[in-house]
Fold:
Amino acid sequence: ELACRVEPVSADILLALVEMGVPVSGLQQYAQRGQRVTVPAPSQLTTPKQTSILHTGNNKKHPSSIPENLPEFPDSHSYIRTPTHRQPVTDYEMVREKAASQKRDVESSDQVHCQDWQDSQSLQD
Structure:
């Protein structure tokens, strides 16, 4: 990681083994032994073809910096900006009506709260 490499090199593995306290004296002879079994590289799975029922727009191809085994970019319509809220009301009359309505609601809830508080105070006396 510190060397800014994606793939480790043999020196990285050797250093990791030494830091973990694993003896590395016979490692070279073990690697060069006869009858060594090598594991083949994993084969690529075939990806199922996407149906074109929900496919709209154009898909971008991966840049060279992105591995091919990652999924494709979403359709271009995914990036279209869609407003998710209404524009605020700026009409003077509507703003005044809303302010008056909110004032009535606050006064009403204050009256209920004061009444509840007075009732509970009289019970404690």
Remarks:
- The chain is about 40% helix and 0% strand.
- The chain has a mean pLDDT of 80.
- The two ends are 72 Å apart (CA to CA).
